[in-house]
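Sharing a chain and its predicted structure for anyone who wants a worked example. Both blocks are below, sequence first, tokens second.
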Amino acid sequence: MKQCPISGDAAATCQRSPDRGDSSGALTINQLLLESRAGLQRVHASDLEREMAAGALVVDTRPVDQRDRDGDLPGAVVIDRNVLEWRLDPSSPHRLPVDLDPARRIVVVCNEGYSSSLAAHTLQRLGLTCATDLIGGFQAWAALRKQSG
């Protein structure tokens, strides 16, 4: 049985039994999260600076209220989650003017590392095969930064 790297009651649910979805074949969010993460080489907060130095595009998808409350992620490009795919799809007329080489590492960061996994998986499906996300999201990065003083 696969263990979900998530916290709280959701982790206990995932550890007890793999959800089978319903009879229509629909997935549960736990299944979708596991499926999305299966193809990601997720980044630890302690490795984020190294990834950036190596040329990774770090994308902060947190809503403005979270960024206002918790602060910015230095060096990250801010893209609202609801337009992420349009801004990063290499074929989109609405893409950002950034290097979107399919071999470029893209690290998506959300608040706690859940929606970023789903977003990174979607970016991979758009041909950005090195897209991934930050384990624990901004909160893990901020906690690590606070620890190191």
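Comments welcome. The helical segments are 8-16, 29-38, 48-53, 64-70, 84-88, 115-125, 137-147.
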